[in-house]
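for the writeup, i need someone to sanity check this before i put it in the appendix. the sequnce is what the collaborator sent (i think, or maybe the updated version? ugh). structure was predicted straight from it, no edits. if anything looks off just tell me and ill rerun, i have time this weekend
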Amino acid sequence: MTTAAVVAYYTQEREARVSYAGHPPILYRRTGEKEWSYARPSAQKGQSDGFPLNIPLAIELDTLYEQFTIPMAPGDRLFVYTDGIIDTPNPEGESFGLVRLKDVLDANTVVPLSELKSAILKTLHQYSGKELTHDDVTLIALEIC
């Protein structure tokens, strides 16, 4: 199964436009806020708890994917990742999950992006107790200038 999160940043409009295709939600943090938020459209048909339910890619050829907008300002941050991060298992087989990912992000709101990424990878290694070979583990952290 192939999922996708497409994020485009438009400098003149100072906004990010996001579309999901069965992908876990990206997160964003506004300058000065203490917590990260899930990037999701306002609740509408085809969604559960505000999270998109757009199907993964190539399931149905004529699928239309919704797009929503996140207003951004200098200093705001975006965090995009693959499901290999939240699917990282511990020795008992329990997945790392969205809540633990958000906890790591919230604990590192003011650190440089390189330290944020290192904190996430360190936490994943500690959680799994081994090398991360279960799935792809990809992440991108961006700060708006």
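The helical segments are 83-86, 97-106, 113-128. The chain has one domain: 4-143.
thx in advance!!
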